[in-house]
Automatic annotation (TrEMBL):
<protein>
    <submittedName>
        <fullName>Uncharacterized protein</fullName>
    </submittedName>
</protein>
Amino acid sequence: MEQEFEKMKEKAPDNFRLDFAVSREQKNEKGEKMYIQTRMAQYAEELWELLKKDNTYVYMCGLKGMEKGIDDIMVSLAARDGIDWIEYKRQLKKAEQWNVEVY
């Protein structure tokens, strides 16, 4: 799967962002393990602006516990625009724009 994403990034570098958060291999700026919610927090406002467009697709994969951290970030950003994140996330999922695989 990673190779497929790398190819997409090569084909459309201005329209595709590929990022990883591997807790056992990476550290954040505080020297702590890098989790997806930590990585997302680094560019959360940019992501929120992109999520308001109908041509943005997000794919995330990781441990089940990551979803709460992601929701915590997105709830506050959506609230600034008067949007209920949980309902908005449902709409994004229905449109296949928000894809999270957890295990």
